[in-house]
C-alpha cells in the first residue's frame, strides 16, 4: 500500500502548530518530532475549523 497524499497544506499545518504551541518542535525536529497527542489535537482543530467554515457557508 502506498503513502497517502496529505490533505492539509504545509502552510495550514504550520499555522495549526503555531496556534497549538508546538511549532518550535516542528521547526527543530520536523513533523516526526511531535507527539501523537499533538498530532491528534492538530487534526481535531482542523476538523473544527472545517465544520465552522461549512456552518458559515450555509448561512
From TrEMBL:
It comes from the Bacteria. InterPro entries: SASP_alpha/beta-type, SASP_alpha/beta-type_CS, SASP_sf_alpha/beta. GO terms for molecular function: double-stranded DNA binding. Keywords: DNA-binding. GO terms for biological process: DNA topological change. Gene3D superfamilies: Small, acid-soluble spore protein, alpha/beta type-like. PROSITE patterns: SASP_1. Belongs to the alpha/beta-type SASP family. This is Small, acid-soluble spore protein, alpha/beta type. It comes from Brevibacillus fortis.
